[in-house]
Amino acid sequence: MVKYFDHKNSDIPRNNWVDRIAPTAARPYLRLVRIDRPIGTWLLLLPGWWALSIAPKGGGLPDPLLFILFGVGAILMRGAGCVINDLFDRKFDSNVSRTANRPLASGAITIPRAFIFLLILFTFSLLILIQFNRLSIIIGFLSLLLIIPYPLMKRITWWPQAWLGLTFNWGAILGWTVINNEITISTILLYGAGFFWTLSYDTIYAHQDKRDDLLLGIKSTARLFGNKSRFYIGIFFAISLLLLVLCGFFSNLSWPFYIGLVLAALQAIWQTFTINFDDPKCCLFYFRSNRNFGLIVLVAIIFGQIT
Description:
By secondary structure, the protein is mostly helical. It has 18 helices and no strands. Helix 4 packs antiparallel against helix 6 (111-129) and helix 12 packs antiparallel against helix 15 (229-250).
């Protein structure tokens, strides 16, 4: 039986395009993969686009076809990750105001149907992956070792945001190997930059649920850092930017890249010093603003390659 909730803090938007346009039967599945909340797709996709833009040794603009393939792949794999997460967390989600309306937590989608849907998402993702070289295919399959256990991390470690950082930035490695068929120091630096960026924005995100997490015994860096979150988020942003500088240096990017990083640094400083960690809506707004941070870095890389 489907349960219905009316939580004012629900993270599922209403009266958007899913409600207006999508067939009724499709709506729970679209909400399950968060297609109406694309910020997660952006944050998963951008490190891959960074790599596709910085990896070509001859400079120039990135390959638009690869950008499209990575875009579709990010939608599919982010959706698959959401299904896995909600399968593990459905009982927790039903007790948290922000997540109680999610399709698996509310019973709008049954567990068997969720597994079938997950298989479909993985199948289409595989069709994209096999377009690439052998090393990239191996890298793509290895990502499952990070994706599948991720929902368990909040139960066993205070650092689930670190595991998410390892997972969400895997596209940086994949994008690099798709272009160069090798992993270099620049690859590792770019991956590390994304990792520390994720630590920053996902700690911000976790502050939305810190009261519910305390009651349910769920761990996070938001709870671990507490009143020191501003300090640690600032440190993580600084390390991310430093690693981007080093990546640009080893990749021979020109001066516009570093000008762009100054703009990214200003955006990070704005986040760090002005956020209200006790206001869930404020935390969500600042979390979403990290798409802008990632896009600034992307534009900086592109201009650093073509100038």
